[in-house]
Inverse folding.
């Protein structure tokens, strides 16, 4: 049982559910959407300015948890690379009939190539499933924070948040 | 081991343009990098042994404050290798205890 | 003897920020640092900073450092490197060593921004090569581009331990575990989440029992702690690491303030003995200011704000700003600083700072 981010380093189910940065299941049905997995009050608000559609608000004081306005979020993913805590992801639930697309920030080398099959990991760093890399964005303006999009079976879209490091280093 | 590629810092483009001699063995290095960095890159971590019990010591603070990393360099003992830059041809020796000056009997 | 208007001791984020403010106001300022390069710890911070736009959120620490240095250059601030300050005299003369010679520099005002140093931890085997401060590992990987080892144990879950673990993996090492003696993680959840995502286990209520090895670290034994912080019998685990990094806090480097006769207060949450200072960052010795970790261990963002405050206050004291202008500038800086000292992580530091300021202004502990 995960007592919470303060004890394990991983936000618990309860913490995520209580966070205003997580979209509703209804919103997820509609199209790609940001997942802001920020559950602690720390003074930080670049996400607010990162969104060109006003879909993220923090306000004052800047320790407020970011609020995701699902109706305004277009799933563009611009916010992902701009969170200093690397806590923003994107999930496109119905990418295809059977698969979802998960985008996550990644600051390691080597970067995978588009088309690569990679071992995908969850918040625990454990292997979850194989995924296909659909996009690797490494814009200069994002200063080294690459954003990788992997296609995974739908069932894993709420778990996959990274490339599984131990598996990737073994084979990759 | 050197960090040749890095996701934020990019590729290390520096040339190993210097050669230092460590306990008689040639070690390639980069002019200007701390001696300790060249040693660690070559897998050398034991820099000295303590005077009384001969215990191995190496780098600890890395910024020139603790003096755990001292070695004898070009005949001079107690040189803080973490803040002393490499020069081509430097002679570096594992220091035994308090070390000896080159001209000491 | 050499003279200057304001002597800033320490070219880290606090010192650089202070010097910029004095120079902008038109004052002559000299920065003195013992290192070969300026920037203090700032250039080792390759992660993106937090805060808001005005705090340079989203910018990597070393880029912020580059910007500060560019301003210093533009303002023609004198920076003396390889110059450890060994003395401060009552008339505000600064004694430093350069190229094995003593030099004296007289100043009207002094800003001490000497930072803090890493705490050590003693345990059997802690002196072996391969056991080092987390800051040492950070310097090696981010400045010198050399790995301290390949398999690391990190001790300490404050932001330093969490961030350096991440950076060690970025440099290509494996962090086998991070242990924390307390029952909870000390640093930001987002920093912890990054390393958990990379498969690094975080064991709270664990400490190091001993390091095993003859001439260097060969493995380490960790042990669980109970609610009374006592080792739990038979809970020992051996980890096959070659490096142990210690991130158990920092202590302000306050020798120069002691030398100067500044009054101190003991504030554990700020790192121990810290010089008292007022709202202007002035110590109990008139004309001697402090800024950054020497005044309480926080972070680079607050260090820069404190530096700006000290620099502005110095400029005001020298008559380079009128009272109104100074008050205006200081208010803006305080607002920016207070925004950083909020929330569950910042509140405690804010209270500690309020206490320190209260004591300096004649209050009682």
């Amino acid at each position: 049982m995960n007592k919470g981010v303060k004890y394990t380093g991983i936000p618990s189910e309860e913490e995520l559910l209580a966070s205003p940065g997580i979209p509703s299941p209804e919103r997820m049905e509609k199209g790609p959407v940001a997942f802001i997995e920020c559950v602690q009050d720390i003074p930080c608000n670049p996400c607010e300015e990162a969104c060109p559609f006003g879909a993220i608000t923090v306000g004052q004081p800047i320790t407020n948890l970011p609020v995701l306005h699902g109706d305004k979020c277009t799933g563009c993913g611009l916010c992902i690379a701009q969170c200093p805590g690397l806590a923003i992801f994107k999930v496109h639930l119905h990418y295809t009939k059977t698969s979802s697309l998960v985008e996550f920030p990644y600051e390691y080398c080597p970067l995978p190539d588009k088309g690569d099959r990679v071992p995908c990991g969850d918040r625990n760093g454990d292997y979850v499933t194989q995924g296909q890399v659909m996009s690797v964005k490494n814009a200069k303006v994002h200063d080294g924070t690459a954003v990788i999009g992997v296609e995974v079976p739908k069932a894993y879209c709420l778990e996959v948040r990274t490339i599984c490091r131990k598996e990737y280093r073994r084979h990759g | 081991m050197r960090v040749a590629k890095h996701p934020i810092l990019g590729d290390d483009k520096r040339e190993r343009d210097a050669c230092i001699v460590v306990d008689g063995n040639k070690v390639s290095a980069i002019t200007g990098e701390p001696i300790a960095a060249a040693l660690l890159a070559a897998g050398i971590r034991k820099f000295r042994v303590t005077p009384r019990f001969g215990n191995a010591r190496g780098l600890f603070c890395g910024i020139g404050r603790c003096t755990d990393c001292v070695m004898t360099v070009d005949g001079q003992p107690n040189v803080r290798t973490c803040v002393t830059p490499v020069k081509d041809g430097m002679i570096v020796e594992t220091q035994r205890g308090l070390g000896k000056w080159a001209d000491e009997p | 003897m050499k003279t200057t208007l304001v002597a800033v001791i320490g070219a880290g984020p606090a010192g650089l920020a202070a010097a910029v403010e004095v120079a902008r106001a038109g004052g002559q300022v000299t920065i003195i640092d013992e290192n070969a390069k300026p920037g203090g710890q700032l250039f080792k911070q390759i992660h993106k900073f937090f805060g808001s736009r005005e705090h340079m959120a989203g910018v990597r620490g070393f880029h912020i450092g580059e910007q500060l240095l560019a301003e210093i250059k533009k303002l023609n601030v004198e920076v003396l490197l390889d110059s450890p300050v060994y003395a401060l005299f009552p008339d505000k003369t600064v004694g430093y060593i350069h190229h094995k010679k003593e030099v004296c520099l007289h100043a009207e005002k002094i800003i001490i921004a000497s930072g803090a140093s890493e705490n050590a931890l003693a345990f059997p085997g802690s002196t072996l090569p391969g056991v080092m401060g987390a800051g040492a590992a950070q310097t090696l990987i981010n400045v010198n581009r050399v790995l301290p080892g390949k398999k690391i144990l990190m001790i300490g879950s404050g932001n330093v331990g969490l961030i350096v673990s991440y950076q060690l993996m970025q440099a290509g090492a494996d962090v086998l575990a991070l242990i924390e003696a307390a029952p909870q993680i000390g640093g930001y959840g987002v920093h912890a989440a990054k390393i958990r995502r990379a498969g690094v286990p975080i064991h709270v209520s664990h400490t190091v029992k001993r390091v095993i090895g003859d001439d260097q670290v060969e493995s380490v034994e960790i042990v669980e702690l109970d609610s009374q912080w006592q080792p739990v019998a038979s809970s020992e685990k051996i980890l096959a690491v070659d490096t142990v990094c210690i991130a158990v806090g920092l202590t302000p480097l306050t020798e120069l303030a002691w030398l100067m006769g500044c009054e101190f207060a003991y504030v554990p949450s700020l790192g121990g003995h810290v010089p008292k200072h007022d709202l202007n960052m002035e110590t109990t010795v008139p004309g001697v200011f402090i800024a950054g970790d020497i005044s309480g261990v926080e972070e680079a963002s607050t260090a820069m704000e404190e530096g700006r405050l000290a620099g502005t206050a110095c400029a005001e004291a020298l008559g380079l700003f009128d009272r109104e202008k100074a008050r205006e500038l200081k208010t803006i800086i305080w607002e920016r600083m207070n925004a950083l000292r909020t929330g569950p992580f910042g509140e405690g530091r804010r209270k500690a700072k309020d206490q320190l300021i209260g004591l300096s202004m004649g209050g009682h502990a």
Notes: Helices of chain B lie at 35-41. Residues 35-41 of chain B form the longest helix (7 residues). DSSP finds one helix and eight strands in chain B.
